[in-house]
C-alpha cells in the first residue's frame, strides 16, 4: 500500500512517464477504426453492483473440494445500454468467488475455451510450482486443460486468481480474467466480523470502450482507460442497510492506482490487507492500492439515516492522466433500510508470526526505459525476463531480507513475489511498525526513487517461481525474474 504523500510526489509526473516510456502504442486493426465511447456520456449510478457468485464444488471428498471452471468469452452489460464481450472464469465478470479454508485442499480443473493461451495464478498463495500458474506454464487454447491443486497450508488471506500467460496476461486480465479466492481459518471466524451478505468482495479496475461497447485494448493505454468498474459494472450503485459491512477491495487493474475514501470524509476501519488481518484495526479516512493489492475494510453505515447516498471516491490527484470528474468516483452506496447488527470489530484481530533471523540480504532494482519510444523495455537488475535463466537461487528454509528500489525518476512500479507472503520492514529508511503495511503482504508499491526492505521465509515448496512488477504492462515489457528455491 501507498500513502497520500507518495501519490502527491508522483502525481504530476506519472502521465509523462507513461507516454515517454513507449507505453502508448498505436492502435491496430479493428480497434483503430472504431470511435471511442465517451466516458462523460455514461450515466453514473444506474447499474446495480452485483456480488460475485460463490462457486460450488462438483465434488467433496474428505477435506478436499473439487471445482471445474471453463475459461470462456461471454457477453455482459458493463456500461448501460451496451453489450460487451469479456473473457471470464466460469462465465462471470469478474470471476466467481472460491471460498476455502486453511488445512483443506482445493482442486480446480481449468478448461481454456479461448483462442489464446492462459495460465492461472492464485495471487498470494503458498502452492507447489506445478500449480503456481507460472508465465510459461500455459493452458493451450481451444480446449486445453490443467488441474491446479491448492493445499491451503497458509493462514487466512484475501487471495485472487488471474491470468499469467507471459505477453498475454495484460490483455487477458484487461478483458476480464480475474476471480476472488477467500481463504479463512478459525482465527478469522471467531472474531464476529460482518459476515454473510454483509461481507462483500469488490473488484476495482478501469477500462476503455468503443462506441459499440467493445473493450479497446492497447498495451500501456493508461491515459484512455477512464471508465471505472466495480464488480464488472461502470460506476454502479450498491444498496446497504444501516449497519456494519465488510468490503474486501481488490485492485485488479492493469496499471491504475486507487486512493479510496468516502465522499463525506468519514472514518472507516482497515482490518486487513493482502495476507489477511492486521494485528489491530487501523482507523483511517483513505486507503491506497497499487495494482494487485487488497484492502479489507469495515464501514459502519448505522451513522447514516435511511435515504442517504454516499460515494466511494478516488482522489483525483492520485490518478494523473484521467479526467478528474470521471475517475474521481467509483461507486455509490445507498442506505435503503435498517437491519439488526450483532457483528463486532475487536481491538485485537490476530498475532503476527515472529520474524525469524534473516541470514541473507539481497538488493533488487526495478527500472524501465522512459525515453525509448515504442521499443522501451523494463528490467529487474538490468535484465529483461528470460524464462530459462535463474536470477536468484535461494536455499530452502532460509529467511532473507530484500531491499527493493524503484530506480526510475518518473515511472511508478510495484513488486510482487510468488510463493511467499512477506513483511515490510522499512520504507525509505523508516521502520514500519504500524499501519497499512504492517501485516502480511505479497505486493508493495514503489513510487519513483522509493526503496522498501522486505523479509520473507522460503519454505514449504522447492522449485522455480517468479517475482515481478505487478503493473502487468511493465511485467510484459520484461520486468520479471526467476527465483529457484533448492
From TrEMBL:
Matching entries from Pfam families are given as: Cu-oxidase (PF00394), Cu-oxidase_2 (PF07731), Cu-oxidase_3 (PF07732)
Q: Catalyses which reaction?
A: 4 Cu(+) + O2 + 4 H(+) = 4 Cu(2+) + 2 H2O
Q: Which GO terms describe its molecular function?
A: copper ion binding; oxidoreductase activity
Name the UniProt key words of this record, in alphabetical order: Metal-binding, Oxidoreductase
| Top enzyme category | oxidoreductase
So which domain of life are we looking at? Answer: Bacteria
Q: Which InterPro entries match?
A: Cu-oxidase-like_N, Cu-oxidase_2nd, Cu-oxidase_C, Cu-oxidase_fam, Cu_oxidase_Cu_BS, Cupredoxin, TAT_signal, TAT_signal_bac_arc
Q: Where is each Plastocyanin-like domain found?
A: 77-186, 242-305, 378-484
Keyword hit for Cell wall biogenesis/degradation: no
Record EC number: 1.16.3.4
Q: How would you summarize the oligomeric state and partners of this protein?
A: Monomer.
Question: What family is it from?
Answer: Belongs to the multicopper oxidase family.
Protein name listed in UniProt: Multicopper oxidase CueO
